[in-house]
Amino acid sequence: MSVVGLTRRRALLLGLAALPVGYLAWSRILAGDFGGPALNPAQAHAMAQAGGLALIDIRRPDEWALTGIGQGATPLDMRRKDFDDALAARVAGDRTAPIALICARGVRSARLGNRLLAAGFSNIRDVPEGMLGSGAGPGWIARGLPLVTG
């Protein structure tokens, strides 16, 4: 094999070896580490049922239709242009009210949680397991927590 062939092979192998590291770095940047406290789904459910916080499911309507919504959660699509206003209305304008965010796997909730903290909501919590599970744990559905459908 020629020197050029060996060089190309080494470059390809090095590039392939770097993919996992690049993906991890990209996913950290995309999700961002949440700057506030976290709850597991069982804690979020119990607190929402007791009236101790507003649990907000920030996924899309098609995701709600596919899996259902966690009992006690309010569906509020994070893509809404008036999301901040709708969230403030949900907590009667009290930006200090405890709010927990849940999405499918914890990526969107972490990112949105950081944005809401910067926007003046001071008591945001994340449910990083999400509905479907993540590296943080099995998620709402796998834990067998109640769902509301329809």
Automatic annotation (TrEMBL):
Pfam families: Rhodanese. InterPro entries: Rhodanese-like_dom, Rhodanese-like_dom_sf. The lineage of its organism: Bacteria, Pseudomonadati, Pseudomonadota, Alphaproteobacteria, Rhodobacterales. It comes from the Bacteria. This is Rhodanese-like domain-containing protein. Residues 49-149 form the Rhodanese domain. CDD domains: RHOD.
